[in-house]
């Protein structure tokens, strides 16, 4: 309504409508502000994520590193190749390698024997693998788990990398951890190398010296020992040489990977009560025989490696154990078993008492 003194006046209905409009406007402003903040946060997070992933892809694992030989077998998927590179400690994460090759369209990774370095970033490694840049003046050799130094020496000589006996005569003592203390002062030369050359497939330059070959195998051994394993060894108040010694015995005694932790547990149980290990594998190491069960005559041989005659661990490893045997020595299976035997056509049979063990021998070793 309009009158002469007060100008335009709003009725109650008009005032309510205006108030509602102002309320809606405030709500819309708040909504737009919230959307703006959310979009800004999403963009910031996306940018941060992008730069983080970019950093992971472009930054190598190490500023400096040693060349490593990596074998990419035929038929491996990109995920399997990425996992292998991570396990070999050449990249930080298989995930970022997969992200890179996916978005860059690198789908032609080739099988082959490669020389890579942890100082290479993911694009550089992918370029090598996609380009098939394989060194040709090299020899490829596989060292099985449980090989002794003598067997490794023979295998390397067979492919022409060394002369027979070169590895056996190489003095590796200065590069190895100190041997475990021995109450009788026994310390054999074989301890200086046996046990620390990691079984694996290697690619060696044909002009490599015996020192180069030894160093590559020993470095591989150290790479396989994760910080978690080393911390567990320290927590158990054990020494690395003792772990390697027991792992070597487990390697030769266990017919399967699955049984390794339990067999390691049996040996630890015996060590705790100062019971002889009575390992046929340690006797075979002395005699050079490959028998599953040592003869009674062999168990009487006077050698510190004869764990029928001498209590405790032997003075050194009896072979070069693989990763599964080492893990079993670090994380043995807890049990009440003190005996085991290997039937010819059945899994290992474990026993808690000597009487039970004798009964199992009568049953299975007829």
Automatic annotation (TrEMBL):
What is one GO biological process annotated to this record?
A: cell wall organization
Q: Which GO terms describe its molecular function?
A: lyase activity
Name the residues that span the membrane.
Answer: 31-54
Identify the InterPro entries for this entry. MLTG-like
Return any one Pfam family short name.
Answer: YceG
Recite the UniProt keywords alphabetically. Answer: Cell membrane, Cell wall biogenesis/degradation, Lyase, Membrane, Transmembrane, Transmembrane helix
Question: What superkingdom heads the lineage?
Answer: Bacteria
Query: What is the protein's given name?
Result: Endolytic transglycosylase MltG
């Amino acid at each position: 309504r309009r009158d002469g003194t007060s100008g335009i006046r709003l009725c109650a209905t008009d005032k309510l409508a205006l108030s509602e409009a102002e309320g809606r406007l405030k709500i819309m402003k708040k909504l737009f502000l919230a959307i703006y903040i959310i979009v800004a946060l999403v963009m910031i997070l996306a940018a941060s994520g992008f730069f983080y992933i970019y950093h992971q892809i472009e930054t190598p694992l190490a500023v400096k590193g040693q060349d490593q030989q990596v074998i990419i077998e035929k038929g491996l998927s990109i995920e399997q190749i990425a996992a292998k590179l991570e396990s070999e400690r050449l990249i930080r994460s298989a995930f970022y390698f997969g992200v890179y090759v996916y978005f860059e369209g690198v789908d032609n990774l080739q099988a082959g024997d490669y020389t890579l370095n942890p100082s290479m970033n993911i694009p550089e490694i992918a370029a090598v693998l996609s380009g098939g840049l394989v060194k040709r003046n090299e020899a490829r050799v596989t060292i099985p788990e449980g090989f002794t130094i003598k067997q490794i020496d023979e295998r390397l000589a067979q492919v022409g990398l060394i002369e027979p006996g070169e590895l056996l005569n190489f003095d590796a003592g200065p590069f190895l951890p100190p041997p475990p203390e021995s109450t009788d002062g026994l310390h054999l030369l074989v301890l200086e190398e046996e046990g620390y050359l990691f079984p694996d497939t290697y690619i060696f330059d044909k002009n490599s010296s015996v020192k180069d070959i030894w160093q590559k195998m020993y470095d591989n051994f150290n790479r396989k020992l994760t910080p978690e394993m080393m911390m567990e060894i320290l927590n158990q108040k054990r020494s690395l040489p003792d772990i390697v010694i027991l792992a070597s015995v487990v390697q030769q005694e266990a017919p399967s990977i699955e049984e390794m932790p339990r067999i390691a547990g049996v040996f630890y149980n015996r060590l705790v009560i100062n019971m002889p290990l009575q390992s046929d594998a340690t006797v075979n190491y002395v005699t050079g025989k490959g028998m599953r069960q040592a003869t009674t005559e062999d168990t009487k041989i006077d050698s510190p490696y004869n764990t029928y005659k001498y209590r405790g661990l032997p003075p050194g490893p009896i072979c070069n154990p693989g990763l599964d045997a080492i893990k079993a020595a670090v994380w043995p299976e807890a049990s009440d078993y003190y005996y085991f035997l290997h039937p010819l056509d059945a899994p290992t049979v474990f026993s808690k008492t000597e009487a039970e063990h004798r009964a199992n021998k009568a049953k299975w070793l007829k």
